Amino acid sequence: MVNLPSRREISGLHGVRRLFQGAILRLVRLDGLSVVSLIDLNSFKIIKTIGTGSGAHGVAVGADGRYAYVSNVYSNSVSVIDLQVGKRVKTVAVGRSPNGITVAP
């Protein structure tokens, strides 16, 4: 994982998924808020930041690359992110404290 301003390697962040050409979907926390950020790896600039549920932890992307699914540990839910429009389109209630997540075709 890379700190964008300093471009130095850091550790401890979860849910990194490579998308598109030269962009990465990364799960980060800012001031207690949980978000997913699309980052251009060529310029190291954040393209878009999308809010998720509380305690966002894991992220998986569907086979077609259209949707990302984010497990939210503290809100007991999964956020569905439409990557084409760049927003959360649905929140699905699930069992207690969902952690990792994967998508099967």
Structural summary, described in words:
The protein is built from no helices and ten strands. The protein is mainly beta. It has a single domain (2-93), classed as Thrombin, subunit H. Strands 3-4-5-6 form a four-stranded antiparallel sheet, with no helix packed on it. A four-stranded antiparallel sheet has the order 7-8-9-10, with no helix packed on it. 22% of the residues are buried.
Descriptive labels:
mainly beta; Thrombin, subunit H; four-stranded antiparallel sheet; 10 strands
Question: Tally of extended strands?
Answer: 10
Proportion in helices:
under 10%
Strand order of the largest sheet: 3-4-5-6
Radius of gyration: 13 Å
Order of helices and strands: EEEEEEEEEE
Structural class label: mainly beta
Tell me the CATH architecture: Beta Barrel
CATH C-level class is Mainly Beta
First-residue to last-residue Cα separation:
28 Å
Largest sheet: 4 strands, antiparallel
How many domains make up the coordinates?
1
Q: How many DSSP H or I helices?
A: 0
Shape, please?
A: globular
Give me the secondary-structure topology.
Layout: E1 2-3, E2 8-9, E3 17-19, E4 23-30, E5 33-40, E6 45-51, E7 56-61, E8 67-72, E9 77-82, E10 87-93
Antiparallel strand pairs: 1-2, 3-4, 4-5, 5-6, 7-8, 8-9, 9-10
Report a brief summary of the structure.
By secondary structure, the chain is mostly beta strands.
